[in-house]
Known about the structure:
Elements (H helix, E strand, L loop, with lengths): L1 H11 L4 H38 L7 H16 L3 H18 L2 H7 L4 H41 L7 E4 L2 E8 L2 E12 L3 E12 L3 E14 L2 E11 L5 E9 L4 H7 L11 H11 L4 H11 L1 H16 L5 H31 L4 H25 L1
Antiparallel strand pairs: 1-2, 2-3, 3-4, 4-5, 5-6, 6-7
Helix pairs in contact: 2-3, 2-4, 2-6, 3-6, 4-10, 4-11, 6-10, 9-12, 10-11, 10-12, 11-12
Amino acid sequence: MMRTHRQHAESTVHLSPTISFYIARQFLFSFLLIFGLFIGIILLIDLIELLRRASGKDDATFAIVLNMAILKLPLTAQKTLPFAVLFGGMLAFWRLNRSSELIALRGSGVSVWQFLAPVIIAAALLGVVKIALINPLGTAMISRYEQLENKYLRGQSNLMATSGSGVWLRQINGKDQSVIHAAKSQVHDKLVLTKVVVLFYEGNDSFRARLDGKQAVLEKGYWLISDAWLTERNKPRTYLKTFKIKTDLTIDKIQDSFSSPATISFWELPRFISALEATGFSTLSHRLHWHSLLAEPMLYCAMILIAAVFSLRHNRRAGILLAVAGGIGTGFVLFFVSDLILALGHTTGIPPVLAAWSPSVASALLGLTVLLHVEDG
């Protein structure tokens, strides 16, 4: 009878908005503290690595290298956000426990789910901010970083790009280069381009000739262009039944040259996927990345549940050390499993939706199950 009365009393106690905002603010402060620490470490490591790569290059001054490190920072730092949420949650719960604030709340009849709710909502909002704002900012800055990298550190640019007007492809033949434009492309056993225009250049910018063809097929070691008209400087236009252009390109090289999914904004990914599908190339990696971004708010909520499991009932020093070790170990295991499932999604027939969402859903269910067992028996 007394237990029934107590359970009824707990169910009627609700957190005030003021206390809910206070708990959420404590979590956000701890999160920003941990995330700021991660950002500082990442910036230092990237700066040292870029300075090493820039050694011996007179044009790559320290100011340019520092600018590159800052431009690269948002995209790299995003990978640490789940860990910042996990450790920020653990730190917030530990501080509230240490000050006996959580003990007082629970003594007044507030359940663990009630004071976890504002933290979970804050974590979910962080996930939304990440995919809606931080991700686009990171992709915009990484584009500028790649331009500077190509200019000062001799990086390689993409071989192929897609646009609303078709596909563009660049290849280098010795000191010369050619740019290929096609209205459409298809990939079966071979890459086939239709309505092809090839611009030939001597060196980097000296125009030499133009070739208009009905179709181009990528064979081993050359492009085979059919029904072509060749226009050269100071020469009459010539019709050619077939024309061969030497190349070292392969379908795999062209596929690998597309922009990495991580360098494309969340808002631009659907359009890019549609354009890539129109070329006939695989969009699997881009679909996996898009769905993994959509799943991040749930992943952050799962991190809060796991943080609660390891930090709500430890007050002594030994218990704190055990909780920290358990949280760190669990975080790295989840990170490894998530990467493993995504890798399996790339190489097996696992649907992109399942491969991208299963780590977040499984982590949330795991944290929820353990917390239910610990708190409610």
